[in-house]
Amino acid sequence: MSMIRDLRAAVRPSLRPSLRKAGPALASPYANYDATRDPSASSAIVDCAVYRDGRRVDDRACLTPRGAMRQVRESGGFAWIGLHEPTEAEFSGIAAEFGLHPLAVEDAVHAHQRPKLERYDDTLFTVFKTIHYVEHAELTATSEVVETGEVMCFTGPDFVITVRHGGQGSLRNLRHRLQSEPELLAKGPSAVLHAIADHVVDGYIAVADAVELDIDQIEIDVFSPPAKGSTRGTDTGRIYQLKREVLEFKRAVTPLLRPMQLLSERPMRLVDPDIQKYFRDVADHLARVQEQVVGFDELLNSILQANLAQATVTQNEDMRKITSWAAIIAVPTAVCGVYGMNFDHMPELEWKYGYPMVLVGITVICFAIHRTLKRNGWL
Question: What's 286's DSSP letter?
């Protein structure tokens, strides 16, 4: 967040002189705005640039959405505007400048959307769920394994607007990498859309590999011999928590599969044919991750059932031990109960060797029962 604030601080002051000059010539959609500022300029803007022939135009007039679009309409190229968690008021000027559909604008501002691809006139609106793996020393019943964010992308004939929500999924490094590949950026806005999709799916692959290690560790813990004094039931909370995190992962990956297939298979006027080939690779990677995540979910179901079965077996073993000792203790209890009766005619009471014989009898019977139960695995 400090990086974003620094960028905003660097962008806003440098714009004020040029904005004051442009104030009197404001178009009618912004007649109600203060004439000393650009109504399309937003404090949520992270970066704003114009790209022509694959290279960033070094012109301070391009640092505002209005200035960027003026440059595009006069000299060609396309504008790429990046925002981070804009409010409705901050985004309204940009939406009006680029003619974005109100439904897509509402989704972009309020976030928490399902991954999807929608077309509004000459604009593609794509929603991506970003996934970040949360490092943890040990998986517990309350550990957060994956953290989600969102990236919305408006792709038009001559502009790309990215709206990011959440603390993860920054596109700064992606922008810098694309700027180092002008031959790719020269393909237009669809090249940026592909790069974002590829960036998001690459993140899925990294998270899937990390989650697989967590599942392997859980599997080892469940099926390895329990430590002395431990119980199998202690693993249930960890398994259930990991399963919830995998389901969160699944909700980000699965809905995106269809949009990527459409971008890779169906001809679209806004997608360059050369770029469309690259979407096939993204769709293939996404399909592989989707298979992994579905497999994770099924494997965790099996591990959870195995853990519960082991807990049940452990409880049965404990019950058998308790029952066995109860059977052994029942022998002296029964004998003592018999000779504790107050009858006058009990010949054993007056027998000289009665007491030692009863003790010997009890010991022999208890030993025989113990040996039999131990041989049968009850003790």
Answer: H
Tokens of 314: 């452990």
Specify which residues 120 forms β-bridges with: 123
At 261, list the tokens: 């297939």
Residue 289: count other Cβ atoms within 10 Å of its Cβ.
26
pTM of structure = 0.74
Report the DSSP beta bridge partners of residue 130: 149
Instruction: Quote the CA–CA distance of 292 and 294 in Å, as a whole number.
Output: 5
Tell me the three state secondary structure of residue 272. Answer: coil
Tens of pLDDT, residue by residue, the chain (379 residues)? 333 344 334 333 333 333 233 333 333 333 332 333 454 455 788 999 999 999 999 888 788 888 999 999 988 999 999 999 999 998 999 999 999 999 999 999 998 899 999 999 899 999 999 999 998 888 888 888 999 999 999 999 999 999 999 887 789 999 999 999 999 999 999 999 999 999 999 999 999 999 999 999 888 888 887 666 555 555 788 888 999 999 999 999 999 999 999 999 888 888 988 899 899 999 999 999 999 999 999 999 999 888 888 888 778 888 888 888 888 898 888 888 887 777 777 777 777 788 888 888 889 988 888 888 888 888 7
State both tokens at 55.
């290279």
Burial class of residue 82, CB neighbours in 10 A (0-12, 13-18, 19+):
buried
- Buried b / exposed e over 256-284, threshold 16 CB at 10 Å, is beebbbebbeeebebbbeebbebbeebbe
